[in-house]
Design brief:
Length: 289
Amino acid sequence: MAVWAMLFYLAWRLRLLTAATAVTLAVTMVFLIGLSRIYLIEHYVSDVVNGYLVGGVWLILGIAFCEWRRTAPVAPVGVMRKRIAAVSVALALATTGYFAFNTANPLNPTLEPVLQTTATPATLIQTGMLPATTQTLTGVDRQKVNLIVTVPDQTGLKDAMTAAGWVLAPSPGPFRMMTAVVDEWTGRPVTDPIVVPTFWDNRPNKLAFTQTTTSDTADTPVLHARFWDSRFRLESGAIVYVATITRERQLDGADEESITPDTGAMSDKVLGQLAADLTAAGAGTHVLR
């Protein structure tokens, strides 16, 4: 924070930027740096706030030192002094570049998930071997698991859902989320469907599907299907997925106030139709009552 803010301060002092522009750019840059740390799950919010506070202290000290030095008499700059400054900057850049391209922190090895085998996937939820509900990021109950699907692989699940008339929803990145918020605010038709992720067994949904039409707006309740790999396999090697089928608005779940427990409870007709469609596409299905 202190480094970037100081650069904008120097740009203002050198009259490259106006004061308003320098402040706006500095605040924006610092905010985006902190946001990126949180979005990439590199730091907690408290770490980012602490960085803002510590960086602010060093920024104040740096500006105070620069302003104090402005009152000191300026010595004439000779050729030798310029050469020493140029060599110092060149050495600093070379050293920084060397360590940046030749030093790497060792990454922790990724642990492969433990897979288990089952012959009765329909009983995994009822027997308590798997969680029966999903939660939001803050742990609020969101939905009940109401469908179990077995397919040979992830591609098989995508093909089966597509054949059943569902559309694969893209991953909701920051730009898509902002677009969805604008669509909801203006009431425009949904051009890029958003399915807000929820968590099951401390993991966000792996795949999400939706049923929308070109006339649907962000306020129109539509069907959303979220799938998680249960980390159970059949004897044949088929993947056991757990799923929630929910009728909700596009951004339900992004706002905690719009969440009610068990919003995933669907009618037997909807679940039965989806199960029949998936079975016709070659998937194994088990509806949970």
